[in-house]
Amino acid sequence: MALQLPFSGQAEEASSRGRFTDLDDVVARANATQYGLAASVWGKDIAAARAVAERIEAGTVWINDIHSFSPHVAFGGHKQSGLGIENALEGLAEYTNAQTIVTNSWAIGQAA
């Protein structure tokens, strides 16, 4: 889902064109799905775009870009958009099988 923020900052202007009523409406519509693989937010105000991006329930949210991938950046979805992560250290961790072993050495010295 691509979300276009109004450059003028006037939600009413965008609403008159049938896009959305305010930023809460934008976020609600973007999140009103069982999927959450990726989204993009577009606008001149990067801080405002980032604030919206942080509220989007998607594994990847691009700002003023789309479909930009790198082996150094993790990629994975939220909700019903798949399990796991690809790429980056997070992706490599998917191939590991972590094990924690805890030993209480003090208890050995106390055994009679």
Automatic annotation (TrEMBL):
Pfam families associated with the record: Aldedh
Protein species of origin: Sphingobium terrigena
Record-given protein name: Aldehyde dehydrogenase family protein
One Gene Ontology molecular-function label: oxidoreductase activity, acting on the aldehyde or oxo group of donors, NAD or NADP as acceptor
InterPro entries (UniProt xref): Ald_DH/histidinol_DH, Ald_DH_C, Ald_DH_N, Aldehyde_DH_dom
Domain Aldehyde dehydrogenase: 19-101
Keywords noted in UniProt: Oxidoreductase
Keyword Ribonucleoprotein attached: no
